[in-house]
Design a protein that fits this description.
The complex is a heterodimer of chains A (318) and B (377).
Chain A (H helix, E strand, L loop, with lengths): L5 E12 L2 E12 L3 E5 L6 H8 L7 E6 L2 E2 L4 H6 L1 E4 L11 H11 L4 H14 L15 H12 L6 E5 L7 H16 L3 E6 L2 H4 L4 E6 L2 E6 L1 H7 L4 E8 L1 H9 L4 E7 L2 E6 L2 H14 L3 E8 L3 H9 L4 H6 L1
Parallel strand pairs in A: 3-8, 3-9, 6-7, 7-8
Antiparallel strand pairs in A: 1-2, 1-4, 4-5, 9-10, 11-13, 11-14, 12-13
Helix pairs in contact in A: 3-4, 3-5
Chain B lengths: L2 H17 L1 H21 L7 E7 L4 H12 L3 E7 L2 H9 L5 E5 L3 H7 L6 E4 L4 H29 L23 H32 L1 H6 L5 H30 L8 H26 L2 H18 L12 H7 L3 H15 L7 H21 L6
Parallel strand pairs in B: 1-2, 1-3
Antiparallel strand pairs in B: 3-4
Helix pairs in contact in B: 1-9, 2-7, 2-9, 7-9, 7-10, 7-11, 7-13, 9-10, 10-11, 10-13, 10-14, 13-14
The chains are: A alpha/beta (318), B alpha/beta (377).
Chain lengths: 318, 377
């Protein structure tokens, strides 16, 4: 049984591949019924972590408990209590929708007396009723993802792991998919989901920002936006943009500068003090300034500020 | 071991096989094609080999000798040429395998009771055929020679004593000396190797390649259930193909079947376990379809073809190769096949072959089981 309401407990988890440290001493606790997001760029160690939690990879050191079971010592008990959707779509393309569902019902040993009801439920949830006999390969991406989710939860696991479930899926299907995730969370299922879409991260109850195998920050999306910036954020609209970025990298108050669409985002220590100085600095360097204003950071700002070392943009520019 | 999970994997595998046209063709057509190909195509019999003759004598006696060649089923005197160069040409362009030159004083010398030599020019490109040809030619000429000797002696009123020692040869097992009877039973070993190792190595490597293995092993299914579930349909196909091939051999090629059908099925089942385990093991190690298929062909099909005694008798191999064949499971299976089909050897006398086969089956099955873990990387 989950201990003290925690479905997933990760303690000092480490995974090395040769010299490369993919997961570097991660500690986390995920509560029952929580939608927990694992946000980070490709190669940050998200999939490696999730694979260790599903018992697919052996941790180098440290450990984790999932649904009350130790992932290293009781991997089979873990597997009976989780649903897993791997990053790549990995149902059988040459099987029909129904054949895939029946396969996984068999693999999860769904009892015969519940089989019919569970299959109905999965079809309904995935919105695939009446399409049971279509060959899976012919389904659009969004449908495939819903089918994969349906197959992964046929045994009603208390914890589900979704590794970038919506990559390559259109925005509407993505939205529908997240509705499904929340539906399950409402019923007490713990959902552990990785993503590199910032807007998706907003749907999570709590988030861990992952960078180079470590947890860079942890909290609800709004907590992260409020507390995790190393400074305050300014929006600068000016002309020409490219030149301005270069100049501002070396400006006295600026911790970091980056282009965001048609404007610049500046990280500064004190917004009120910095605004007039940034204006003056830019004008002195022949940049036409339209607007300098303090704004609330997005998750992306938080992420960039946490994961980039100050001045790295400068080096990149050079 | 959960039967539900085993069944789920096996059922899925059957659907894969049924949906894959190419796979189905290999499974159903290939065994028949192989049996027909080897039954008809590979002919080790030397019958009706073309012979050209340059008869410089042109006498009744030289005609008698040539008739003896013609009467032998091994030779076919295609043409009598008028000069030596035509004979050489027929060997050069391959119209003849052998040229016979009868000297101008052939009948004269025989009448005088003097020895005479007949020249035989043999195409030695294929040394085996050449050796056989020379042997047959010697036999024909010796027969003629001893008859001629008898006539010569009798004409001079001398007492004629028939040969004191002669060989009375009777061929057992393959009475008609049909090479199809020697070859066709062994084709079963080839078919099993392809079905067993080649196809299974593809099906498991495919799961790794397409990423479906990751989803599969994230479920509670155990490695043994995956292995048995995946191999069971191929085992059934293999046994089906054994029966089809055996029926073609018996009813189409008229290969005698004198042993026990049950023993045939048991030996085939053991050999199938050997090749299925090998195929599984290879695909676990290789993890790519291309590598797995190539390695499985090299490890199972080639030895079954070359080193099993299927086509090339093991006793005629160099000592080192003979020793190597001992670790080729196909060797024991082919041996059992030939004994069951042609000799009808009782099962109790087959243990020298069945015991090693069973040992290989056991060891390789354990190896395959141990090789597969539910871990990535």
């Amino acid at each position: 049984m989950p201990e003290a309401g925690n479905s997933v407990i990760i303690e000092d988890l480490v995974k090395r591949f040769g010299d490369f440290v993919a997961v570097d001493h991660i500690n986390l606790e995920v509560r029952k019924g929580e939608v927990f997001g694992f946000l980070g760029p490709n190669g940050a160690g998200k999939s490696t972590t999730i694979r260790m939690l599903c018992g697919l990879l052996r941790p180098t050191s440290g450990g984790a408990r999932v649904a009350g079971f130790d992932v290293s010592r009781e991997p089979e008990s873990v597997r009976q209590n989780i649903g897993y959707m791997s990053q790549k779509f990995s149902l059988y393309n040459d099987l029909t929708v129904m054949e895939n569902i029946r396969l996984f019902a068999g693999l999860y040993s769904v009892p015969a007396n519940l089989l019919k009801e569970r299959i109905e439920w999965a079809l309904e949830m995935a919105n695939l009723k009446g399409r049971e006999h279509l060959i899976t390969a012919t389904l659009p991406g969004g449908w495939k993802q819903r089918l994969a989710l349906g197959c992964a939860v046929l045994h009603r696991p208390p914890v589900i792991f979704l590794d970038e479930p919506t990559s390559g899926v259109d925005p509407i299907s993505r939205r529908q998919f997240w509705d499904l995730i929340h539906l399950m969370a409402e019923k007490g299922v713990t959902v552990f989901v990785t993503t590199h879409y910032m807007e998706e991260a907003e749907y999570c109850n709590r988030l861990a920002l992952i960078s180079r195998g470590t947890v860079a920050a942890l909290g609800t999306p709004s907590e992260l936006k409020r507390k995790s910036m190393k400074g305050e954020l300014l929006l600068v609209e000016c002309e020409p943009l490219g030149q301005a970025v270069e100049i501002l990298q070396s400006a006295p108050d600026v911790i970091d500068a980056a282009v965001f669409g048609s404007a610049l985002h500046l990280v500064v220590r004190d917004a009120t003090a910095a605004i007039p100085r940034v204006r003056k600095y830019l004008s002195d360097h022949n940049v036409t300034v339209a607007l300098v204003d303090k704004i609330n950071p997005t998750l992306e700002d938080v992420f960039v500020s946490l994961t980039s070392t100050p001045g790295s943009a400068k080096e990149w520019k050079a | 071991m959960s039967f539900t999970r085993f069944l789920a994997v096996a059922r899925k595998e059957v659907v894969h096989i049924l949906r894959d046209t190419r796979g189905l063709i290999i499974v159903l057509i290939m065994p028949v094609v192989l049996v027909l190909l080897f039954g008809y195509g590979v002919n080790l019999d030397f019958k009706g080999l073309p012979v050209y003759v340059y008869d410089r004598d042109g006498s009744q006696r030289s005609q008698d000798l040539l008739k003896r060649f013609q009467a032998s089923e091994y030779f076919d005197v295609v043409r009598v040429v008028g000069d030596y160069s035509a004979l050489t040409r027929s060997l050069d362009d391959g119209h003849a395998k052998m040229g016979i030159v009868i000297p101008w004083d052939f009948s004269q010398r025989l009448s005088d009771g003097r020895p005479v030599q007949v020249q035989a020019l043999v195409d030695g490109t294929d040394d085996n055929t050449a050796n056989v040809l020379i042997g047959y030619a010697l036999a024909v000429v010796q027969g003629y020679s001893s008859d001629a000797q008898l006539v010569w002696l009798r004409n001079r009123g001398q007492l004629v004593q028939p040969a004191l020692v002669s060989v009375q040869a009777r061929t057992w097992y393959n009475e008609d000396l049909e090479s199809s009877a020697f070859i066709v039973p062994g084709v079963l070993a080839l078919v099993m190797s392809v079905i067993g190792a080649f196809l299974t190595s593809l099906t498991i490597a495919r799961e790794w390649e397409r990423g479906t293995m990751e989803q599969l092993i994230s479920t509670p299914v155990t490695p043994v259930e995956i292995m048995l579930g995946k191999l069971a349909p191929y085992f059934a196909i293999g046994m089906f193909d054994v029966i089809v091939c055996a029926l073609i051999a018996i009813y189409w090629f008229q290969v005698p079947f004198r042993g026990s059908f049950t023993t045939l099925l048991c030996a085939s089942a053991m050999f199938l376990v050997v090749v299925l385990s090998l195929g599984f093991f290879i695909s676990v190690i290789a993890k790519s379809q291309l590598a797995a298929s190539q390695v499985s062909l090299i490890i199972t099909f080639l030895p079954a073809f070359l080193l099993s005694g299927f086509l090339f008798p093991i006793e005629q191999m160099p000592a080192v190769l003979q020793w190597i064949t001992r670790i080729i499971p196909a060797r024991y299976y082919v041996s059992v096949l030939k004994k069951i089909f042609l000799k009808g050897t009782p099962t109790t006398l087959l243990y020298t072959d069945l015991a090693p086969l069973a040992l290989f089956a056991l060891v390789l099955a354990l190896l395959a089981t141990a090789s597969f873990h539910k871990r990535l990387g």
